[in-house]
Structure formats: structure tokens, C-alpha cells
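Lab meeting prep.
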Amino acid sequence: MIHVIATIELAPGTRETYLTEIRKIISDVRAEKGCIEYGPAVDAQTDLSNQAKVGPDKVVVVEKWEDLAALKAHSVSPHMQTYRVNVKDYVRGVHLLVLDPAD
């Protein structure tokens, strides 16, 4: 299994517009062969003193894939190509962590 944590840096004030766009592809991504989990996340409002915040201009996409081949196929899927075109004016950068389970 492959874990992916993708932090999407956005132009100031565009998070809700970005979320509208990524929500359009969630069902298609989750239907992909090898997708175990896929979804955007934002800061939870908690009273935890040690909570790190991503901030108002970032979205974290949490993903799990059966293997690297499934992740690679996802990255070139037609809906991901359309998504990239639709969000290009909002995305300022992407930081991608691709991780193996360590248990």
C-alpha cells in the first residue's frame, strides 16, 4: 500500500473555489482501480495545544493506493488532467509525500 499526503498551496482567498473543483472528481478518483482512500481535508477546529495548522490557503489531500502503479495511473487519468486545467489559476504549488507503511 502507498500513502500519499498532498499539500496544495493556493492563491489567497481561493480555497472554497478550489474545493468546489476537487469535489467534482472525488467519485471518479475513488472509483479508480487501486484507490483505497482519497479526499481533501482542511484544518480541524480543536483546542489541542500541539496541533499544527496548514492555514487558510492550503488543502491537504489524503490518499491511499494499493500500489505505486495505481498511483501513477491515477496521475494521468482523464479526470485528473481536466482537474489540473480547472484549478491552474488557483494552485500555487504542490508538496507531495509518498510513503510506505512502517508497521
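Slide two material, second protein:
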Amino acid sequence: MKKERVNLRDLTLEELEAFFEGLGEPSFRGRQVFRWLVRPEVEDFSRMTDLPKALREKLSQEATIALPRLLERKLSTDGTAKLAVGLLDGEVVECVLIPERDHYTLCLSTQVGCAMGCRFCLTGRMGFRRNLSPGEIVSQVLLARRFMEEAGIQDKPLRNLVFMGMGEPLANYRNLVKALKILTHPQGFHFARKRTTVSTVGLVPQMRALAEEYPVALAISLHAPENELRARLIPATRRYPLEEILAACRSYPLRRGARLTVEYVLLEGINDHPWQARKLVEILRGIPVKVNLIPFNPHPELPFKRPSEARVRRFQEAILSEGVVATVRKSKGLDIGAACGQLRAELALS
């Protein structure tokens, strides 16, 4: 039986060093390769010219650094780009490159599909297929950078990462943390941890584990201020009541001046009443938060309506009047199905 080759993109720097020691090579070879893996154009070992030729040939037998493929690019009128990523087993995920004032943000996927079943999200309708490997998560950054180079996008850097694409990041905890370590390492991609945000519907054990092991910026997808409504909107979170989620939020380590983000999709007539805004403020009291209000992005397959601007404004003002920061997200990429709740990897379904 043929031995399966190790995908070096799945390995942290420390694991790469151990891998090379296992080959009888000095550990610094791991650091050399780690630096090469940051470059979007490097897809085989022959490009790694500071490695001896014999070692490159050996690596070709023992390991792989194959990248997923960029299958499709969709450009929005607002500059947002949705990228369909074809994984090596034929599955497809999507990531979204979002232009900001002085930088770009990349919204990354962590799973093929999702098991959380959020009623207002298209990804949930796919069901769960599988977790992404650390290398598949990291490769989305490389493909986004390659796309930026090919499209001549050089006006501002890719600086922020948000794990808010397909899947529940904390349900893929081990692979997520490895990807975070690879992406934020100063000898590699060197993304700042304060500019790297993980979003979760509130998987409490994993929230506590992340706080202990590798804290980055955290966003909580709340969407309702009481347990009964929340369980209807996000069925998979029934096992974690709001009280437990908010307790984990209170103990989550924050850098000085930082806040947790609370994400709240506004659904007309369901969770957008001013009394619900006041209830939201009440349960968040004592937690340094900013509330990110997201008016629902309609889709024919989803049974909800987007609230009017007046209703959104009333909800926001009810929060602001209590001294809590509340912003309304301007949906980007709506015309290409790249806005919040719209990712579904159409190529995988066709």
C-alpha cells in the first residue's frame, strides 16, 4: 500500500521542524520551508532554491504542498470579490475579499457546509460535509493574494482575517487553532492576532479552550436576547443557554481597550423590536462589547424579511441610548451572493 504523503501546509512551524528532524535533517529546514509556504506562487518543492536538490527530490516523495484551485471569481459593483475554492477532493468552499477604507479583509471558511442549522443562513441548508484541514483554511489566504496580484489589486494590503465564512469555526477547533498559529506566526504570514477574528454561535467548551490556548478577537453570533427564540433560530445551540455563553464571554481575555463583537441579524417582526434591543443590552451588561447589527439579506429560499431602515434605526437607537456601541453593517457583495448568510458554494451544488 502506497504511503500517504504529508501535506506540509497543515503543519505549524514547530511541527515542520519536527518533520525535518524525523527525516534526519536539521530543524532549520522547517523554518526555510515555512517561509516559502507564504508565497502564493510556490506549489512544488523545485521552487525552494535554498534547499539542497537531493532534499527537494526526497520531499517530492514524502510530502506535498499542493494548493486547492481557484474555480470562480465573482466581482461585486462595490469591489467585493467572492472566490470559489475547489478542494483536492472535489468539494468547494467560498471565501470573500472585502475592501475597507485602507485595507482588505478576507472572510474565510472553516468547513464544507455547516451543522449549526441557522434558519436565516444558506450555508446551513447545505448540511455538514466535512471539516477543512489547517492547510485548506490557510490556502484561502494564498489564493486571495494570488487573485489580488492577477487582478492588479495593489492599492491597499490584505490586513484583516475574519473566520465568518462557511461553517462554525469552533466546531473545527483543532484545525482552526493550527491555522491561526500558521497565519499569525511572525516568521510566516504574520497577521496580527488583534486583526484576526473568530466568529462562533457560542460553543462554550471551545470558547473557553480558545481563551486558554490561543486567544484572538472573538465575535459571538447571538441573534436573539432570550433562549427560546435563539433555539428556534439556531437549533444546534440548544445545549448552550445564553447564560453559559455570556459567562464564557465575561472570562474571555481581551487586550486593553478591546471589545467582543456581538453579531445580530435583524429579521423583520421576529427579533427587531425595541424591547428586544433593551433586553439585549440587559444581558450584555458588564461585558465590553460592540453590537454589529446586520439587516437580513433576503433570498428566495429563506422565509424571512429584511426590516425597513426605520425599524433598524429604532433598534440601533434603543441600544445606543443605553450607552452600548451599536453599528449597522452595510452589506457588501449582495449582488454576487457574498453577503452575510449567503455563502453556499453554488458550484458544489450544480
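Talking points for slide two:
The longest strand covers residues 92-99.
DSSP finds twelve helices and 14 strands in the chain.
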